[in-house]
# Entry
Amino acid sequence: MLLFVLLIIAGHVKSQNITVRASVRGNDPTLPVVGLMVVNKTTGLGFVSTEDQLFSIQADKSDTIMVTASGYSVKKLCFKDSAMRDTFFVNVLLEKPFVSLKPVTIIPPRELEVIQKDIDKLGYKKEDYMVSGIDVLQSPITFLYQSFSRRERNKRVIAQKINDDNRRKLLKELFRKYVDNDIMNLDESQFDDFIDYINVSDEFLKNSSQYDFIMYVKRKYEMYKNIKPPSGEKD
# Structure
């Protein structure tokens, strides 16, 4: 009978639902905590908080809650070994990450807001590289020349390639942050292959929220792991 009671208690602790209420601040008092992001690592669910420095989340007692903000490292919370209670009140101190760069590799740290501004500038329209004001009916020869001449085609190809290169560089910047925050585990040598695999468009990259894009990348990463060998291994 005693064993049965202990098993019930153990099962209750294992699956106990709790509420975590937290106040978040950074270790640098001169900088505000912005872009607060909270993710349940166990379930993959989370949110970007609109309430600066405050959040509340429900989870299983054994779940791991990941808390981060723009420019700060991830702080992990887990109450698995804590005393039994329904609600936990915690103060979370976020710290600036220590950036260690490989020799001859220079990766300037940039905030997510700055990267997002560059993402918003992405986009290529071939019409931007065509002579404007041409009336096709009045000037068909000029229109055809402008549309099909090698010089005009080269302009458009170059402009599109520049935009593609910029998108690739910005995605790599995001992926470095995702790797640092345990969202995915890719070696930098795999970034180009993963970018080709997800084949993300300018429109989706610009219009999705930070959280939605992270969840999209995380799902794609799980699929990518199943079809690609780890770095350094061969098929």
